[in-house]
Amino acid sequence: MMAEITLKFDARNPIAKKTIEYVLSLGLFKKVSGLDQALDDEKKGKVKKYKNSSELFKEVLR
């Protein structure tokens, strides 16, 4: 099982960006995109589907 690390940094900071690029270049870590996370959530059954917006609001406003 893989552990997960979340990093928060100033994406405009060139030193921070280079550091992240270096760490990822080592090949020990994998950068997971938002799309990858969404697809993983769907596989795990964490995504709900509704026929239309009325059905969604009915469920949410219960």
Structure explained in plain terms:
The protein has 62 residues and is mainly α. It has 3 helices and no strands. The protein has helices at 14-25, 34-43, 53-60. It is elongated.
Q: In short, what is this structure?
A:
The protein is an all-alpha fold. 48% of the residues lie in helices and 0% in strands.
Q: State the shape.
A: elongated
Percentage of β-strand residues:
under 5%
Poorly predicted regions: none
Mean pLDDT: 91
Query: What is the gyration radius calculated from CA atoms?
Result: 18 Å
Total number of beta strands: 0
Percent helix, as a range, is: 40-55%
Major sheet description: none
Number of helices: 3
The sequence of SSEs as H and E is HHH
Per-chain topology:
Elements: H1 14-25, H2 34-43, H3 53-60
What descriptors fit this protein?
62 residues, mainly alpha, 0% strand
